[in-house]
């Protein structure tokens, strides 16, 4: 690499909640970042504050609606044009809703953002993350959820466009189960490019998504979130720790919760299902 190149960390959904707290942690330790968000004004404000506090920090912005696969393709090309390579990809952006919203391509919004977009970013940015086997691995962090543990099966045939959209224990949980399974499904293949991948459950977190009257959150859970869920900065620290390539014995394809490696949820651990999931995502993206 040249002196002008950077070792980038890519974070989706960086302007609020856990994503915003992750950015603060990474900025304090001097990590150069590419922030991927839907709102350009919010991202510009975030960047201005970061540069004011850390003048030598490199911060690039990508504006994209992660519901739109065409926009993601464009974003991948823009990220690929930055000099340097990617050390870490945090697939943080998430949607939790009880409303039926379809993407431009006809995919249910939670599936589009929580499952399909991470896969598209992983595959699209893989070349920029690849490195020789004797170097410290790059790492992909997929955001899981404790909601996956209540899911008995992954309903692949109902994933992209479910007939009925449920809340946190329904459609959302299915999309998070899928991205958790995806981490295991891609592990062996990504190892050939010296890239690790992990699914990390940040734990119950107090954010706008969980406390602002979101109808996808049952009212008792909204009340609990306000008083008992952990603040975003505390949960962000867990995610940054889990994203250390040398942590957890440099293992890949694992599921981490509360800073401990856990067994993959049974519904995500089936190798046949994992292959079918990847085949589904490939078919939806490339026909």
TrEMBL record:
Assigned keywords, A-Z: Oxidoreductase
Family note: Belongs to the short-chain dehydrogenases/reductases (SDR) family.
Organism: Denitrobaculum tricleocarpae
Annotated protein name in UniProt: SDR family NAD(P)-dependent oxidoreductase
Matching InterPro entries: NAD(P)-bd_dom_sf, Sc_DH/Rdtase_CS, SDR_fam
A single MF term (Gene Ontology): oxidoreductase activity
